[in-house]
Amino acid sequence: MPLPPSDEGIQNIDRLIHEPSRLIIMMHLYVVQSADFQFLQHQTEMTPGNLSSHLRKLEDAGYIEVTKDFVDRTPHTALKLTKKGREAFKQYRRDVKRFIDKLPE
Amino acid sequence: MTKQNTLREVEKKAYMSYHQDGLLDIFIGLYAIAFGLGIVADKVLDFSFGIIMPGILIAIVLPIWLQAKRKITMPRIGYVNFGTRGSNKLFALLLGLSVAGLGVFFLFTMATFQDGRPEWIETILFQYGMIWIGLGAAVIGSLFAYTMGLKRLHGYGLLTLALFISGYFLSVPFEYLLLVIGSVIIASGTVLLVQFTRRYPLQKGAIAIASQ
């Protein structure tokens, strides 16, 4: 069903980011340069399975980059927003703000 | 899931969780105690430990602090790189303090070695020396508290000011005040460390999960 003209702006909103859990992940990665899975899990208070599943979706969309290396001889996974992800998040903020600003009081 | 209002709050939460481990406090306290003991050693052994102690301590304490961060904090809450924004502010503060420190040292040297210096300079500098040091600690504590977003550093600065003013009026030697301040800060840091380790217990397999 087509949206009424006043709702057109909502169609532009990135639905991948708009999902609350992924939005929180994006917010946490947006304010740091990189973080590992454990840090993100503490900050977002998600279960490992839930977090992994959302991270995979964001990675598939090219919004986050997962790099694996060794710290003190233990495997370490660092997560960071890609340039595309950072731009997508900025655009998402603009779109949401524009849409909300249009809403009547 | 906790609701976050703004990105700034998210950033602050991330930063604070990383610095609520009390390690910084413990090492500031150790630094104060070691500096105080150095001055005591000056008097007992007649050797200028007090002058060389700050440099020695930086060289010893800094690597230990970094290792403690890696061994205690990171395994519990994970690893995060905050980027250069925070460290740039801290670097600017350290640079500013170094320049200010050099300025104070220059003025102090001028006032000390200048022949026929006005008596009021001597009075202000030496008679109220303890109060100046306390004020300096309060200002430096506040600057670091503001830059790092760690409010408890305000408290340490104010504690130092209060103790040095009290010490001035009660004629308590400088080095003993340092020992008291260091002990209080270590106690505060230890409480924070215990709270931190309880809040974030070591999780076996955390690394394995992260590497999946």
Written overview of the protein:
The complex is a heterodimer of chains A (105) and B (212). Chain A has six helices and three strands. Chain A is of the alpha+beta class and 105 residues long. The longest helix of chain A has 20 residues, at 83-102. Chain B has 212 residues and is mainly alpha-helical. In chain B, helix 2 (23-45) runs antiparallel to helix 3 and helix 6 (129-148) packs antiparallel against helix 7 (152-170). The two termini of chain B are 23 Å apart. Residues 206-212 of chain B have low confidence and may be disordered. The chains are: A alpha+beta (105), B mainly alpha (212). Chain A binds chain B through residues 20-21, 24, 27-28, 30-46, 48, 52, 68, 71-72, 74-78, and chain B through 1-2, 4, 7, 10-11, 13-14, 17, 70, 77-84, 200, 203, 206-212.
Please write the CATH class name of chain A.
Mainly Alpha
Average the pLDDT over all residues of chain B and give the rounded result. 79
User: What's the quaternary structure here?
Assistant: heterodimer
Major sheet size, sense and barrel closure of chain A: 3 strands, antiparallel
Q: Uncertain regions of chain B: pLDDT < 50 for 5+ in a row?
A: 206-212
The portion of residues assigned to helices of chain A is: 55-70%
- Strand % of chain A is 15-25%
**Low-pLDDT windows of residues of chain A:** none
Number of helical regions of chain B: 9
Helix percentage of chain B? over 70%
Largest sheet of chain B: none
Number of strands of chain B: 1
Q: What order do the SSEs of chain B take from the amino end to the carboxyl end, as H and E?
A: HHHEHHHHHH
Domains of chain A (count): 1
- What portion of the residues of chain B fall into strands of 2 or more residues? under 5%
Anisotropy-based shape of chain B: globular
Our Rg estimate of chain A from Cα atoms comes to: 16 Å
Features:
heterodimer; A: 105 residues; alpha+beta; Arc Repressor Mutant, subunit A; 3-stranded antiparallel sheet; 6 helices; 3 strands; B: 212 residues; mainly alpha; disordered C terminus
